[in-house]
Amino acid sequence: MTAEPLSETAAVYWRPRVDDDRLVRRGRIWTLTTVVHTIPYAIAAVVLFALEPLTAPLGAILLAHAWVIPALYAQRGANVLRRRPRAAAGPERTALGLLGDLVGHRARELHARTGLVLERGALGVWLVGETGAVLVRPGGRRVHCWCVHVEDRTMPSADRIAHLLLALRTDEHGFATVANLAFSGARRRVRRRLPAAMRPALDEAGRAAASRR
Amino acid sequence: MARLIRMDGTGHTTVAEWTAEDERAVEAAVAAFREQLDAGYYAVVSEGEGQARQVDELPLDAPLVILRRPIAGG
């Protein structure tokens, strides 16, 4: 990918430019934050039960909190790949033709099955959707889920993906800088919250990323 | 024939077409290109799989120049 900065990065000038080290740090901070959000609930449940077994219902509520908070974060990650309502058939077909010209045969076939485009980058393997992208890091275990979109609700779905794909190809680090991080964590946690039709795309991205340890 | 296309609600619209030998077509394409950039579009040249380049001047030798809207987080 070329090194020219993405123009949109000027709109988020206060954000440090994303690079490999920064992604590793953000991933660790995300994990630490999740632990901080959940462990106190679990400890409180155990301590309360040890002190007074009659507090078991309260402990159950606390444990439910400890479970639901990371689950909601992971759901937020999966949501970046959600599909939007289709445009009319004609524009969708036209847009699909252009997107097809931008990607190879295998990516075209994967898009037809899953609605997602797989793109290999320097930071990992990307899955680009209509309103966001998931970056599977080298090794294939951790994902970063990014909310990013083109500001035009009338646009066909394939054009929305093409917009993100072209921006990603222009400046991958700038793309990750402009996008909002919605989740960072284990790929399997996002996978089980994706629609079944999209899971093969994440599996393929995971395999591609696993070979790039 | 080279094309300047704009991604929009119709899928895409061909804004200009030109060949290097046709001076009038080149002039019209350059003017249309400038107009689209002034309207807030970014121009991108796809350079094969995984590669793209944003351009501020119309690259007359490129077979396809794509105009896209800005992206934003959120």
Structure notes:
Chain A is an alpha+beta fold. Chain A has helices spanning 20-51, 56-79, 89-102, 105-114, 157-170, 172-178, 187-191, 199-210, and strands at residues 117-120, 125-128, 132-136, 142-150, 180-186. Chain A has a 5-stranded antiparallel beta sheet with strand order 1-2-3-4-5, sandwiched between helices. The radius of gyration of chain A is 20 Å and the shape is elongated. Chain B is built from 1 helix and 6 strands; from the N terminus they run E-E-H-E-E-E-E. In chain B, 31% of the residues are buried. Chain B has one helix spanning 23-38; strands spanning 2-8, 11-18, 42-46, 52-55, 64-68, 71-73. The mean pLDDT of chain B is 94. Chain B is 22% helix and 43% strand. By secondary structure, chain B is an alpha+beta fold. The longest helix of chain B is centred in the middle third of the chain and has 16 residues, at 23-38. At the A-B interface, helix 3, strand 4 and helix 5 of A face strand 1, strand 3, strand 4, strand 5 and strand 6 of B. Strand 4 (142-150) of chain A pairs antiparallel with strand 6 (71-73) of chain B.
Task: Give start-end ranges of low-pLDDT stretches of chain A.
Answer: none
Order of helices and strands of chain A: HHHHEEEEHHEHH
Low-confidence stretches of chain B: none
Mean pLDDT of chain B: 94
- Assembly state here? heterodimer
The biggest beta sheet of chain B is recorded as: 5 strands, mixed
Order the strands across the largest sheet of chain A as they lie in space: 1-2-3-4-5
Largest sheet of chain A: 5 strands, antiparallel
What is the 3D form of chain A? elongated
Rg of chain A, rounded, reads 20 Å
Helical content band of chain A:
55-70%
Determine the N-to-C terminus distance of chain A: 19 Å
Share of residues in helices of chain B: 10-25%
User: What amount of the residues of chain A lies in strands?
Assistant: 5-15%
Helix-strand sequence of chain B:
EEHEEEE
